[in-house]
User: Fold these one by one.
Assistant:
Number 1:
Amino acid sequence: MITLENINKYYQQGEHRFHVLHDINLKINQGELVAIIGESGSGKSTLINIIGFLDDDFEGTYFYQGQPIHEYTRKQFSKLRNRNVGFVFQNFKLLRESSVADNVALPLLYAGKKRQEISTRVTEVLNQVGLSGYENQLPKNMSGGQQQRVSIARAISTHPKFLIADEPTGALDTETSQEIMNLFKRLNRQENTTIIMVTHDPHVADQCDRIVKIIDGRVVSDSKGGE
């Protein structure tokens, strides 16, 4: 599904050029649940920005479902991202003064779906994440775990080919973190949703199929999860 070959990433700061990713080679198959781990500044976020079609300024080759997307224009990248990727963030990134239903509906509105179709899909995904009946709630009145469930519902509303979850349990307590992980695992197994998860938490990483470790912009290990 995803094949990165000899990916290098540089940042220019004034006269200095920083080499952030070094010859990254990585394959991710449909239906996998993959953890990407590493210290702050290791290059994890840079890597998932490339994987998730947020950054098209890199060297190397990227094949997505067999297509050489490293040759795509920025506009093509944007279209690819909107049609294929769902994003879940540590700090939820919800519109706190808008209802749960309106938050979940946003990607569907951008995709040009009709009102009735949006309403039906919002109900479906809220049921999937255990928030049936919460349509009219405001995120600002909800717990962190509930807000993350709304974020996940929004991310899966357009049937993305894969999810990128950036520290999705980072702002949650241990019990709530496990509930969110159980939800990700259920989506992965029941819906065959491919999930790429950045995490600092070894317990979270161990529950994934694979653990890819990055140090100083290099993949230093790629192993099976522990649970």
Note: The two ends are 24 Å apart (CA to CA).
Number 2:
Amino acid sequence: MTEQLSSLAYRLFIDTCRSPVTPMHYSKALRYFMEYLNVPLGDYDKLLPPEKDAKVIQMGICNFVTFLREKGLASAFVTLYIAALEK
């Protein structure tokens, strides 16, 4: 059941994109974020487990942004990745 909810959440995440190119970029950004957090691909429930405090999740995203900037990614890519995570 959890796997079904997880795949449903991902499908809704992708299906709500208006441009046909956006799902590709958002999916890549989400995959990259999951790799950064060492979360297995496809295990979307581990991104927002109920026992995690919102501050912990926020710090994970802030650390990811810092990581992206340290890698020298252009600000447009960082903005795109953050947009994907906000969605």
Note: Helices lie at 2-15, 22-36, 54-70, 75-86.
Number 3:
Amino acid sequence: FTQILFYGSPWLQWNGRQAVLFHLVERKFYLFGLVLWPQDVFYLALLLIISAYALFLFTAVAGRLFCGYACPQTVYTEIFMWVENRIEGDRSARMKLDKAPWTAKKVIVKAAKHAVWLILSLWTGFTLVTYFTPVSELLSALPFNLSGWELFWIFLYGGFCYMQAGFLREQVCMYMCSYARFKGV
């Protein structure tokens, strides 16, 4: 559900424009029919405070519900592991493949997995940027007319998605996640 929401929201249209858009150039935040200006940051702060309290409340009532089902790190790790399982096979098949000598088949299988991971990561980075630049502008600028900042954020977010969901996986939760630190509080 969270990924459908993340990947789908930029494509929703509302009154002839993107339904969810944080247009930094125009200094307007569009949330369906609501238009927020920079001086409305108070409402954003209030929303963030309510969200934090809700997260603490749900954690106290239902445990690590957020970590298990809604955390982007967990969801992307599951997606990447699903891709890995489909391409390389289950755990025992992957271990056997890793121990096998490098053959053309092993190179193709490993390259296919990483190619799918990279495509998914770059699409994730592109989707993030569509929240700040209208989708129509980005699509018309593809592939060679994107601004430096747009390219930077696509590759940065895509690179972190690739690295964290593909390689670091649960180590991100154990060592880097601030939510795990204040969960005990």
Note: The radius of gyration is 20 Å.
Number 4:
Amino acid sequence: MTDRLPEGELSALATAALEGLGASPRDAADCARILVLADLFGLSTHGVSRIASYGERVDLGGIDAKAAIGVEVASPAIVRVDGANGLGPVVGMRALEAAMARARETGVGIAFARASNHFGPISPYGYLAAEAGFATMIGSNATTTIAPWGGGDARLGNSPLGFGVPQPGGPPFLLDMAMSVVARAKIRGAAARGEAIPPTWATDAAGRPTTDPKAALEGFLLPIGGHKGYGLALVVDLLAGLLSGASYLTHVSSWSADPEKPQDLGHFFLAIDTRVLGTPEWLAARLADFRAILHASPPADPAAPVVVPGEIELGRMARYRAEGVPVAKADLEAMRAYAARR
């Protein structure tokens, strides 16, 4: 069961819930901003529904909602962010702000964050950066769910990678993707319906491709693009985990298996100040033409015209802002319970 809330009301409730967990007003508002944007984009699995799991880990000592996040300028263009085991979206916001601050000075800036936790989806960060005139490349590592190519056990995470490019006066380009062919939730759905899955989705516990969803749930997700996706997932973890000073690969703690332990996730945020490349009008015209070239392609299915990454999510945002944001009743109850702690 779901209810629909106006964006402002949902943001206020999420902020109050995070304050109830111990976050400062600023940190709570920034965390809520990322999670509410996720719901506006239709990414409900990474939106305010995450507050309940954040709260469980805060209560167990696995996350410090009051963390004093540190920012260290390592060079004119490079920043290190010590998340101090804080709320992931707060660490993410501090890293994004730091990367953009460096980019304002040098044209390009990158922030490497360590000692973090689940930071929500990438597209809200890309959206906020694009609104401020920055192109971005953002990534995070994750708990292990993917076997190395040819391997028989999980050694790397389903690490997300995203890109954003602003279109001044228009919708930005936003790409947000994980490294697996499908999310585990789709496999669970197939198992519940008693349906087979394609052999390209996952392996069984021995690392063999399987069409049995139950066997797949006991096995490992397959990366996009076969060995190429495996390589790309490793690059994300090299940047987000290894270079940041965070944990990487099997060193990352599982939030579900060990919720009381810090995960020590790592993120990277690369920001490019597009204004050093040309005027806003120049960029707007070029991206509009870029988009028009793609839209002009005759659709293979007339009912499914070509879309550019980000358009579906931004369309949902416009609709939900008009109609209200759908939120599960259980998530609303959890947020109200946390808000009552203030």
Note: The CA atoms of residues 148 and 155 lie 6 Å apart.
